[in-house]
Amino acid sequence: MPTILVTNPKGGSGKTTISTNLAGYFASRGHHVVLSDMDRQRSALNWLARRPTDLPLIHELDGRGKHADSLSADWTIIDSPAGLHGDKLSDAVKRADWVVVPMQSSAFDMGATQDFLDVLREEKAVRKERTFVVMVGMRVDPRTKSAQKLQEFLAQAGFPVLTNLRDAQIYLQAAEQGLSLFDMRPSLVNRDLQQWAPLLHWLVNAS
Ligand SMILES: Nc1ncnc2c1ncn2[C@@H]1O[C@H](COP(=O)(O)OP(=O)(O)OP(=O)(O)O)[C@@H](O)[C@H]1O
Ligand SMILES: [Mg+2]
């Protein structure tokens, strides 16, 4: 059962956005998806509670224990809290096949993420190549200098950068309504779906 951990200790980096959209994508493809939420704020599970019941089902797991559903899942997506570190981080990385690290372009984000990537690199599961780490640039406006700095940062990060997602209101609208971009009218999200494609393609082919 492929498991994806979405993590970055920096608050607001886009973890829940990536987690909920990945869950929505795999559910829209007819897969049995479990969305696990390690965060006490329960943002991912609150999103799931807002999800219209006529959309493809996503099963929930509150992150505290095993759930029968996760055993038969095609995909388990784990959203994690800001500040995840130490044994909890190691355990979560060990359980995951892939770690997706979203990051934004501010100096604060780059500073916090640099240290985190150094920690991730030293995780046994990562060193032994049992868990793969990939990066996603979040809220990237390619016209800006900070986007350029982010690309320079990502290029030397040592982990593949699978895509950059633009800053778009549609993410907030989707979150409010319990939707993923994959549940929305294609004409509203065309450009964004194109940005998601390399990440999805990579995950599906690597599984
Ligand atoms: N590409 C984007 N475009 C516009 N808004 C975005 C984008 N990605 C995330 N956001 C918004 O940024 C805010 C923070 O994102 P999100 O909640 O996913 O981060 P997080 O890492 O889960 O935060 P926390 O550390 O608090 O759990 C949210 O309001 C979200 O809707
Ligand atoms: Mg979150």
The succession of helices and strands, N to C, reads EHEHEHEHEHHEHEHH
CATH class: Alpha Beta
- When the domains are counted, the total is 1
Compute the number of strand runs.
Answer: 7
Task: Report Rg.
Answer: 16 Å
Q: How would you summarize what this structure contains?
A:
This protein has about 210 residues and is α/β, with parallel strands linked by helices. The protein has helices at about 15-30, 45-50, 70, 85-95, 105-120, 125, 145-155, 170-175, 185-205; strands at about 5, 35, 60, 75-80, 100-105, 130-135, 160-165.
Q: What would the keywords be for this entry?
A:
single chain; 207 residues; alpha/beta; Rossmann fold; 7-stranded parallel beta sheet; 47% helix; binds adenosine-5'-triphosphate; binds magnesium ion
Describe it for me?
The chain has a 7-stranded parallel beta sheet with strand order 3-2-4-1-5-6-7, sandwiched between helices. The protein is globular, with a radius of gyration of 16 Å. The protein is α/β, with parallel strands linked by helices. The protein has 9 helices and 7 strands. The structure holds adenosine-5'-triphosphate (ATP) and magnesium ion. Adenosine-5'-triphosphate is lined by residues 11-17, 39, 43, 81-82, 138-139, 165, 167-168, 171-172, 175.
Secondary structure layout:
Blueprint: E1 3-6, H1 15-28, E2 33-37, H2 43-50, E3 59-61, H3 68-71, E4 75-79, H4 86-95, E5 98-103, H5 107-122, H6 124-127, E6 132-137, H7 145-155, E7 161-164, H8 169-177, H9 186-206
Parallel strand pairs: 1-4, 1-5, 2-3, 2-4, 5-6, 6-7
Helix pairs in contact: 1-2
Bound molecules: adenosine-5'-triphosphate and magnesium ion.
